[in-house]
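Continued from yesterday's entry.
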Amino acid sequence: MFEKFTVIPSIDLKGGQVVRLLRGDMSRSTVYGADPGETARRFEESGAELIHIVDLDGAIAGAPRNVEAIAQIRAAVKCAIDVSGGLRTIEAVRTTFAAGADRVSIGSAALLNPGLVRDACAEFPRKIFGSIDVRDGRLAIKGWVETSQLTVVEAAERFRTANVAAAIVTDIARDGAQVGVDAARIEELARLVRLPVIASGGVASLEDIRALRTRFEAGVVGVVVGRALYEENFSLRDALGAAVG
């Protein structure tokens, strides 16, 4: 699926608006726009081939809550979109695909309903990503409100057995904080989980993207970028350029 290192811009949805959280805290959100479709269109015009969408309300509620915004994004762009947040039943997965998703990312279900990941991969082969949200080495669930006893490696084993296409690994302590990525740690995780890994959390500069790009052969196949784009640390075009050298 990932033939080259891929930069994936992120759109986080809260109440239908485009926001970013600081370290996953719903009370610490910054609003960047009221038109998700327009945000997605700008990303596509800048060269995005895949956009990562997070239904933050859905992640907390345990069921999709921004389906209209997702459909709005689908209507605005032709590029692929990946959706996460609140996907804890096969019906929720089907609803999200029906709204226009090309991929979906499943996280909490790795602990709460392991059979869902397996069923979703069977029904939508190579269209399911596993979300591994890491807090102190363990899987965070339910919109990052709770930390499970499941380790990163144990969660990855469930996703690998289910045959997910890739794993999005988020370092919660760095997410939205623009403190830089720990590229060596992400490479280590990629080797541990034995899945294609998309890094998420902490990207602050083009150097972060370059550092991750050099680890493509180790299994780090992409990076999700959010606040750094919204705060204009660099443009998406520049990020895409950094991804190819």
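--- second protein ---
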Amino acid sequence: MSGLKQDAARKRLAECGRCVILFIATALFLSGCASIGPGTVIRDRFNYTAALSDSWKDQMLLNMIKLRYGDTPIFLDVASVINSYEVSGSADLGASWQFNPAYQSSAGLGASGFYANRPTITYTPLSGERFAKSLMTPVPISAILNLIQSGYPADLVFRLLVQSINGVKNRYGGASAPRYRNPRFYELAEKIKRIQASGNLALKVQSLNGKEVMIIVFGQETDESTEADIADVKKILGLAPHEREFRAVYGLLPVDNKEIVLLSRSVIQILGHVASYIEVPESHVAEKRTYPNYRNELGNGVLVKPIIRIHSSVEKPEDVFFAVQYHQYWFWIDDKDLASKQIFSFMMFIFTLVDSGGKDGTPVVTVPVR
């Protein structure tokens, strides 16, 4: 073999060596893709959590707006999210040399890969028995009292979840049956909140006629101010002045002076009530599309703030907690309004608290995302 042919052969061999290295690198890459599953957990879990949270907030506010405008609320639950990945690849390498009688050589390298992400999301309309249980059943008294026991401010819980306490009526702003509060309701809620803050409001459960009964207990170790609040609460509710423990039951009026009766609201009533605080455009009120905006109230001579502030504007606002569009207007909560954000988040928690989670055979909608 001549020197020129030997040099050419060495060059070909070097090129093929580089091809082999490339082939090995490709194989290593494809083998690395085999472990793509674990690497997606953190990313996808938090991305889907954020997306579900945002869509849930949007749906909740949009349904409140619909109630305010006399429209039909629709709730669609995300029943499941299944995310599947597919990764495949192939590579091939070939080379040949012939030195005699005439120098000939050939080499070939090929590689291919495929990646796919196919999430499947299943939606379940909230209807039938589950709709009735989740949205139309009053919030259980045990849940209301446990919220207070857990540290949620009593005035917030009562203003949002309770229609009346021993006949002392709360304001209700729902369009179907709006009514004004008893002048002493806010005073009552504020005093119970102060008793709660002092650590002198507790709950216990005891058996009565084979049934578990919630008992509200006013503590003994109180200061003068707290004792005065307890006395005022008993007076407003018509309770026995020398008793410290009272049965807590659902209803309208007590059977005796040792009973505290709470008439709680359903989730649909809560949504309708909170919807009355939405600041709708005055033009919509003038056109009879919805009822007038909330007017400030006085409670015991003090201005009572709206329980939540939801604004509206033609232009899409910036720096918001979230916003939805309805009737060509944007409705939104300011991201700097911490109180309103907490109220809205609390409402979503209540929705979860009363969700029956039952299966009633409702058709589901499964959407493969491509």
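The CA atoms of residues 174 and 226 lie 34 Å apart. The mean pLDDT is 81. Will compare against the first tomorrow.
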